[in-house]
Amino acid sequence: MISEWLDASTLWMILDFIGSLAFAVSGIRLSSAKNFDVFGAYVVGLATAAGGGTIRDVLLGEHPYWMSSPAYLVSTGLALLMVWIWGGKLIRKVNTWFIFDTIGLAVFTVSGTAKTLALGWPWWTAVMMGTMTGAAGGVVRDILIGEVPLIFRKEIYASACIIGSLVYIIITCMFGNVVGRMGQIGGMETGATIIAGAVVIAVRLIAVKYQISLPHLHGEDDK
Description:
Helix content: over 70%
Oligomer: single chain
Largest sheet: none
């Protein structure tokens, strides 16, 4: 049975690799569109994949994950290879970047929230760390490629992380017994992960499709 080998630690290792690969692809894809060389694109991809988790771990007093595991280095190398092979399609299609960025956002938001809760921090800290894990890598990426960070623009980004993080916390803290009966793949934690990640993706997709955004502040010159 899947549940016999897919324990919590294995689940998070798989999700972390998927998230880092997705974020690295998004960073390398944007770097390629700006004609970065291979090394520069790799650095941007690695910063995108590891940036949010590194900031989170430092704030939580933990050693960043990439210091003890080569997963981020490997996933970034794999992402670079993917862009190298399918570069034309990945660079030309904006939707491709959006898909990879959204997957990374969802996975890292949930993993950041779960790790913070596992370390014994309160729920509001978990929301902040989950949001930072999901969004900070994109901020680093946009700064490195010379763009205004997406989190500061009109598109719903960090708000999706906050909503997804809250959903994960509510499920794990209040409805753990119910979600635990959803299936055999890791029980409650896996159910909460799937639901919360799907919520992050859904919020971003709905916001983009219907052009939903947060209100803007206007200076005196804009009145």
